[in-house]
Amino acid sequence: MQKAQTGSLGEFVVDSDSPNSKDVILRRKCNSGEEIALSAILGPPNYEKDLIFVRDVFMKVCIKKPTLSSILQFDCKVYQKNDESSEFDINNACYLGSPTSLSSSIYRGPLFSELNNNLQKAFKEYLIDKGIGGSLTNFLLHYLHTREQKQYANWLKKGEAFLSKNKSLNQFSETRSA
Q: Gene3D superfamilies from the xrefs (predicted)?
């Protein structure tokens, strides 16, 4: 992770980052009044590429206009492009009439890959204009991998403490029964 760019949050702020949670939530309010919420989580390991970060990041971006209750939602994948930079692809884009219209039976639009290439590029440029670019994707890759390593180390410490307490209990019960 030493060679990888750490990136920055830009104008986003961390809204939720519980040590017991797998995801992190970022928010940003634009000058236009638009509100952006971004949720990011590590995907499964991919050992096929020889990269610093073996896991991609799944990112969900929701954008709400100030006078509307509707939301434009993007499902994206952030991945390491090379040793120093990252990239993101949009896997899906859907328009939600309201935050409560999350039912699976609602039409969410066509497959993103089936949209006209110019429209796909326009959606990506829209997200980049909203601050979701290389610096933020670098930050997410670095932050989530570092965070997972800390969570793993903490898990190991808790497991070791549990087992050592269990061992002393076993030793105690063995000496009492002897």
A: Mitochondrial glycoprotein (3.10.280.10)
